[in-house]
Amino acid sequence: MDTKDRVLNQATLAFAERGVDGTSLDDLAQRLGLTKQTILYHFGSKSRLIESVLSRSAQDLMSVLVAAAKASEPGWPAIEAVVRASFELAIRRPELIGVLRETSRLGPPWSEGVVEELRPTLADAEAALRSYMDDGLLSRHDPRVILLSSYAVVAGSVTETEVLRALDLRLDLRAAATLRRTLLSFLEAALLGPEAKVASTESGSSRATA
Amino acid sequence: MDTKDRVLNQATLAFAERGVDGTSLDDLAQRLGLTKQTILYHFGSKSRLIESVLSRSAQDLMSVLVAAAKASEPGWPAIEAVVRASFELAIRRPELIGVLRETSRLGPPWSEGVVEELRPTLADAEAALRSYMDDGLLSRHDPRVILLSSYAVVAGSVTETEVLRALDLRLDLRAAATLRRTLLSFLEAALLGPEAKVASTESGSSRATA
DNA sequence: GTATCCACTTACCAAATGGTAGACAGATTG
DNA sequence: CAATCTGTCTACCATTTGGTAAGTGGATAC
Q1: B166/A193 CB distance under 8 A
Q2: What is A51-196's CATH superfamily?
Q3: Closest Cα of chain A to B142: distance in Å?
Q4: What is the pLDDT of residues B186-202, one digit of tens each?
Q5: Which of A77, A120, A168, B140 is a plausible cystine mate for A73, CB 3.0–4.6 Å?
Q6: How is domain B54-196 classified at the architecture level of CATH?
């Protein structure tokens, strides 16, 4: 009952840290005080364990961001909330981002499920950004590129540890706050430029830009 | 003579694509039409092959960016040139960025050399940004955070393939151009804000954003 | 009481892994 | 020609890997 979850959690941490190929079932089992066969009993095979980890991680990741977005006003406040939640997550559960990075490296057969998990949420986010732009709350950019860039900054802060070290930085709370402030100031400068200045808090369909 | 380089190149591609742990010497050898023992003859062990790949990749990466920076006027033009060179590299030799990401995952014993390879160049870049800010060419931000964020966007464009797919994007020349334009517009908006407007100086091509 | 199921174990196994030892062909050198 | 050096190969080897088979002890069902 409990064991399956423990395996899942430990596997998530290990996959994020050392990668799927760098994590053997024996390693994992030893870390949990079990034998490899217990893991295979619960998951059937390493493949299915991997699938479970990827799927659950993607769900967790998306649910946090969706919650943050839904809890705030449309437009800039929502963006701010999502960015804030992202950095909080990057500090609190960096393995979720690590696993997503690992998914990229594994590529297609493995990433299928994760991609399908991310797609609707990202589509919603894209649509939301686009509507903010239509309403003149934000100035116009390709929303997908905004999303990708923002995610890249958050993910990079967690996963590009050697660049961080080469810069004599490490991702503690203070650095995260600086990064968050910088990312927000980038987004603010680019998205709340002169075009979007007249944005009222109205979320109707009024176009304020010329 | 030639073989050693061929191994190095192929290993760089393979390590970037499938990771160090996901690449066996037998795989690598087969791909090159050799036997594993030939690889071991040239590099002694897999560890030393990895070290060679990491070290050479870091050198290549840095040399391209340094060249771009040195070939342009200080201030904003240099930033623009480096960003342009980065995206060009991301398209032309994505494996260099992939390997750097892999270095992060491998962590300390392996990353030591790479970090020491990156550090001086990044320190120069940091100093340069800081001096531009001192001279009023750019508005003030933590230069290290600017560097990290910019690198993250470029690297993310290459390595976060599943997020790209979930967004129905792929990194072709057109997407790279859009990304580059967006990153530059972010940087421009944040760095060439009101504070830095007076930067006309000797560089001749400084732009005013209005 | 016995039959069944559940969570987990010990005992194996075939394949793949990084690595060693030694041979062989071709060029270079004396 | 003999000797050596270089680059490659074949033949092994010990360890690790994911996975199978066959239990074992305890709870639950009837």
Answers
A1: no
A2: Tetracycline Repressor, domain 2 (1.10.357.10)
A3: 8
A4: 888 888 866 554 443 43
A5: A77
A6: Orthogonal Bundle (1.10)
